[in-house]
Design goal:
alpha+beta; mitochondrion
Length: 1142
């Protein structure tokens, strides 16, 4: 498996280093499952230097990596098979002790022995693995325990999907009869019950109920639903039905709960109802539960004052057609679109290359299909059920995506092995989910429900007199649909390690299939096939990673056979119809593609568990805000897109943020035959060339993807479904092309809905343009408007002649958005009635150092509030300039007292120098990080003496921190309180959690890397440093997200179009004033809550339930300063925090 592959890679690397010690090597051929290694040409940049420390490090990490994953095997099938083999071997040893096991393999000198199946040998291995294994089984709250449960259930689900209940029960029995029974929960037994219920095998159901009892587990509603479904398929089992119904009631359940709380597939619900009616003929399905209303004080007015939901400018028929197109797209899983990159003329060599590439797909298919199930079980026994879920071609299709996309854009430096493996494993999982939804009958029910949902959105839709939000209306339609499968699948997610192992198997097929003639570019060479891809092991910043690297000949082939199409996952493309509204943490966004409500780090499950434990009514505000953001329709600004594509295909323009092609990359210097002859300067120059080429390749491919997707939807209306990160910050689900992109992407996006500019709309367009230029930041809005009127000639020239005129727009901070705005102003000003001009252009309103705004409001800092525009002022305040002025005042005084560095800095302190540090102070930047920021800014000043860089940056960061402390007196106190609290919580072995004012539960996912821990430790420990440093910025981010969601919901009530890029809010020009008013009202409402007091109360209840001692200090929630027991404060409200005694 993957663990054994990594172990052998490390050992191969050790052997190479012992021989040559080069910075990057290609692995020799070793027996590797699941990835075959092949020999690649030796890299030219090899170094003759030896580094014995790397050898020792690799030996140590190989052993740690082996033991780490063996603590909890992620794949049950292999683990159980190995247990059986071990028992057989033990019996064999009794009969003949002299026989040596052929299953062990001796590693390189100095390395421990490793069993080829991943089991440690000898007493040391047993001692290292068995003890942690027991700890995992005993600690039911550990992540490892839950991941193991998840893996067991995913194996059982696979056998159930394959309609192999015998295999599922056999696997369950192996665990049930072993010491690992503790890992099994009721859900594992229920999966097997459902599998037998579909076949009507009542005896097996009865046996599984007895197994539950022997395991000390109580049947739950799903257990009884499976039993009744089975009985519903057997017409003469009335006595058994009565017995199960009596037992159900005895366990504290009611029959109605079966239909209210259980999830069903196919005809399961009908069969359960049929069984119930055999005993109670007059039984009727319970009515849908009355909807619950969020009790948050921030939204009482919102949920109590219902208004009709805004309509889209689409008819029911048009939305039905859009729905059908989106459904077809998702059923195909992938989509192939035209690339915007101009194609090269096909030379004979290019035609050869294209034919070769076409053969690779066929070879990949053959590799998968030529393996029989028995072969798969013998070689990949742990993956066997996952490789049987779909026909062979379903597994080959994901390989065609790397062939047409990843490999076409593969950097000569290689692509991360783990990234490719995770991507391929996820593609297989997505195809499985799609097939499962189709087989369960979800699709047909989805058609019916979405057909009704369209009535709420379409301009000619009929929803009756009642008023609903999208979430509420969808829930109503699902309840009315009655029978059929549930739209929310039972949890069937696959673990991160499983996805990786499956992806490694797919990569093995790819590496084996993609071969090329050695003489394709040089006929003089021997005509034999050689691998086009190699698996190498390389060092990156003191750590080693696996890479898939192309052969140099392969790179030339891909360059000659430039692909004119690009293939993407269907979830990477904006939706062609309004998204499914989020109704729970498991359901929303796409129709068939599996999407998480909350994004999380690979392998982290705490966020999902928190969301599942949270009462659904508490999540309603968050779900409704995400639905509001996702229901905004978009279209493409075609004139701007065409200009961008023309520059993209004309060597790009780095000044305009259009990446140039690789042909413009700097050429490396001529190299001598012996690389050891290079001096230090030449090596540095070579390294810089490689780094620049890699950056250019990455930026070019990124721009190619985004522009190609934009070109694909240029004549369509589209939508961006949203989800969020663990702090509650919202993001569009499509990863490449969305409004969170850079200046280029934002410039080509327009609202699909147009609105008249109104009396002040044109003025707001002009003010927005000046904001995009970066000019007049300190001037009032009226002066910015006057300046825009003064330069109207430049604006009109930019719009009329963007590439041939005076090009004023190119010298602005955001040139492409400025150009798009110039075009909109030109159209509006030339229209007969500018106020009646229909504008689709989004106007942005950005926060003034948003993090400091929240800190100033939390701490009630008057001076700080003025500097970040929280108080009324005649002119806009600029906190960066204010800090720069304060630092200059400190410098002047020090210079007068003879401080040398203060005298050197005269004339060099500016807004630009301090801005980044001021901006990141709120996000927890340290003095060390701030000093590096200052040094970077000073380096950009040509006249600043280099010999004073360190001393000057050290002096400046100190003065910036002092200035902020003086201006924002409470900010540092609040940060210190949050940091110290998080430190104590993490040191107690727990992660930091809190709940936002909107009721969203949050947990910080920072743990110590297990590679750094002893293999005997089975529980992940919180990373104290990350937990304490990240808590202040993450807490502020969660407040920022809360404010955005409140603004989104209240803008909905006002009938506004609203989207956001975190703290930057977008709307039509005619509604800017209304949005600004709502934004301010919700900020005041948010900070009128007892935010710090509620946080302290939550932490007291969660973390301080045991032996506690009170802290001698109190935190005043008005002035946010620490007050000792004997001291007093002028404010009356105090907030105490009790610290955990460690």
């Amino acid at each position: 498996g993957l663990t054994r592959a990594w172990g052998r890679m490390l050992k191969a690397r050790v052997k190479q280093l012992q021989a040559t010690s080069v910075p990057e090597v290609t692995l020799t051929k070793v027996e590797l499952a699941p990835l075959q290694e092949v020999v690649a040409p030796r890299e030219r940049e090899e170094s003759p230097s030896r580094t014995s420390s790397w050898v020792e490090k690799l030996k140590r990490e190989a052993r740690i990596q082996q033991l780490k994953v063996e603590q909890v095997s992620p794949i049950i099938a292999s683990e159980l098979a190995l247990e059986a083999k071990v028992k057989n071997k033990a019996q064999g040893k009794v009969k003949g002790k002299g026989k040596k096991s052929p299953k062990t393999k001796t590693s390189h000198a100095g390395s421990p022995n490793i069993h080829v199946h991943g089991k440690p040998t000898g007493a040391a291995g047993k001692e290292a693995v068995t003890a942690p294994g027991r700890r995992v089984l005993d600690n039911k709250e550990s992540s490892q325990f839950k991941i193991l449960q998840q893996t067991i259930q995913s194996n059982l689900e696979c056998f159930a999907f394959l309609q192999q209940p015998e295999e599922a029960e056999r696997l369950l029995l192996m665990y049930h009869r072993s010491a690992k029974r503790k890992v099994l929960n009721v859900s594992a037994y229920n999966i097997v019950m459902r599998s037998w219920a579909r076949k009507g095998r009542l005896q097996r159901i009865n046996y599984l109920f007895s197994m539950l009892e022997s395991a000390g587990l109580q049947p739950n509603l799903d257990s009884y639903a499976a039993a009744l479904e089975c009985l519903g398929r057997n017409p003469f089992c009335t006595k058994s039905i009565r017995r199960y119904l009596q037992q159900l009631q005895h366990d504290g359940f009611h029959v109605d709960e079966l239909f209210q709380k259980c999830l069903f597939e196919e005809d399961e619900k009908e069969k359960v109802l049929k069984a119930v009616r055999m005993v109670h003929p007059n039984y009727q399905l319970p009515p849908a539960p009355s909807p619950q209303t969020c009790s948050s004080s921030l939204l009482q007015d919102f949920y109590s004052r219902m208004v009709p939901y805004p309509k889209l400018d689409f008819s029911v028929q048009e939305l039905q057609e859009c729905f059908q197109k989106q459904l077809e797209l998702e059923m195909n899983n992938t989509i192939t679109i035209e690339s915007v990159e101009s194609s090269k003329p096909l030379t004979p060599q290019a035609i050869k290359a294209v034919k070769l590439r076409e053969r690779w797909g066929c070879r990949s298919a053959g590799k998968q299909e030529q393996s029989s199930p028995q072969d798969l079980w013998e070689v990949y026994n742990e993956l066997y059920p996952y490789l049987c879920l779909m026909p062979g071609e379903e597994y080959v299709d994901p390989l065609c995506l790397p062939l047409s996309q990843v490999l076409n854009t593969l950097s000569p430096q290689g692509e991360s092995l783990s990234v490719l493996a995770k991507e391929l494993g996820t593609k297989v999982y997505n195809r499985y989910i799609t097939r499962r939804k189709l087989c369960s009958g979800q699709l047909e029910k989805l058609r019916v429900v979405y057909g009704g949902y369209i009535q709420l959105l379409a301009k000619d839709g009929q929803v009756g007199p009642a008023k609903y939000l999208p979430r509420e209306y969808w829930e109503k339609l699902v309840a009315e649909a009655g029978f059929g499968p549930s739209l929310d699948l039972k949890n069937c997610s696959w673990s991160y390690m499983l996805l990786m192992r499956l992806g490694m198997h797919m990569l093995e097929l790819l590496v084996q299939a993609v071969k090329m003639p050695r003489n394709i570019l040089s006929p003089r060479l021997e005509p034999r096939l050689i691998p086009a891809l190699y698996h190498i092991y390389s060092f990156r910043s003191s750590s080693q990673i696996g890479l898939i690297k192309p052969h140099p000949i392969f790179c030339q082939i891909m360059s000659d056979a430039a692909e004119t199409t690009l293939t993407f996952n269907s979830s990477a493309i904006p939706m062609l119809c309004p998204p499914v509204p989020w109704t729970s943490p498991h359901f929303g966004a796409f129709f068939l593609n599996d999407t998480n409500l909350m994004r999380f780090v690979d392998g982290a499950i705490q966020h999902q568990l928190l969301l599942e434990q949270c009462p659904l009514v508490n999540l309603h505000p968050v779900l409704d805000a995400l639905n509001q953001l996702g229901n905004c329709a978009w279209k493409i600004n075609q004139p701007v897109l065409d200009i961008i594509i023309s520059i993209f295909n004309d060597k790009g323009n780095e000044k305009l943020d259009i990446p140039p092609p690789m042909s413009e990359a700097p050429k490396p210097p001529a190299l001598p035959g012996n690389l050891s002859a290079l001096d230090k300067a030449q090596r540095h120059e070579l390294l810089l060339c490689k780094k620049k080429a890699a950056e250019m390749h990455s930026l070019r491919v990124d721009a190619l993807y985004k522009l190609s997707i934009a070109n694909y939807v240029r004549d369509r209306v589209f939508w961006f479904p949203h989800n969020m990160d663990f702090r509650g910050r919202t993001y569009p689900c499509p990863p490449y092309f969305n409004h969170l992109g850079n200046d280029v992407i934002r410039a080509i996006l327009l609202f699909a809905e147009g609105r008249p500019l109104g009396p002040k709309g044109l003025d707001w367009l002009k003010i927005h343009l000046i904001n995009l230029t970066g000019l007049k930041k300190k001037n009032p809005l009226q002066e910015r408007l006057e300046y825009a009127n003064e330069i109207m000639e430049e604006i009109l020239d930019s719009a009329d002649h963007p590439l041939t005129g005076r090009k004023w727009w190119m010298n602005t901070d955001e040139p492409w958005q400025a150009l798009a705005c110039c075009m909109e102003i030109t159209k509006a000003s030339r229209s007969p009635d500018p106020a009646a001009y229909i504008s689709h252009f989004p106007i942005h309103q950005d926060g003034s150092c948003n993090g400091l705004q929240h800190y100033a409001a939390l701490g009630r800092d008057l001076i700080g509030a003025i500097s970040v525009n929280l108080m009324p002022c005649d002119v806009p305040q600029d906190v960066y300039s204010a800090v720069a002025q304060q630092v200059e005042e400190f410098r002047r005084k020090d210079a007068e007292h003879g401080v040398k560095i203060a005298q050197v800095l005269q004339g060099f302190i500016s807004r630009k120098v301090v801005k980044q540090t001021v901006m990141t102070v709120v996000y927890g930047v340290t003095r060390y990080g701030g000093r590096l920021q200052m040094e970077k800014r000073l380096k950009e000043i040509d006249d600043f003496p280099e010999e004073y860089l360190w001393e000057a940056s050290h002096y400046l960061v100190k003065q910036v921190f002092n200035s902020i402390k003086e201006m924002f007196s409470a900010t540092r106190d609040i940060q210190n309180w949050l940091t110290e609290s998080a430190k104590l919580i993490a040191q107690s072995g727990q992660t930091v959690e809190w709940v936002t004012p909107l009721g969203l539960p949050i947990v910080q996912p920072y743990y110590l890397s297990q590679l750094l821990l002893s293999p005997a430790l089975c529980c992940r420990k919180p990373d104290t440093v990350k937990q304490k440093n990240a808590f202040p910025p993450n807490f502020i981010h969660s407040l920022d997200s809360t404010h955005m969601m409140l603004t989104a919901l209240h803008c909905l009530r006002q009938g506004l179009t609203f989207v956001s890029v975190h703290d930057c809010y977008w709307t039509h020009a005619v509604t800017v004033d209304v949005m600004n008013q709502v934004c301010r009202q919700q900020f005041v409402a948010l900070h009128s809550e007892k935010i710090l007091q509620d946080l302290s109360k939550f932490m007291l209840e969660k973390y301080c339930r045991y032996s506690l001692s009170p802290c001698p200090g109190l935190l005043c929630c008005r002035c946010c300063t620490w007050v000792g027991r004997a001291k007093s404060c002028s404010h009356v409200h105090f907030l105490s925090f009790w610290f955990i005694q460690l």
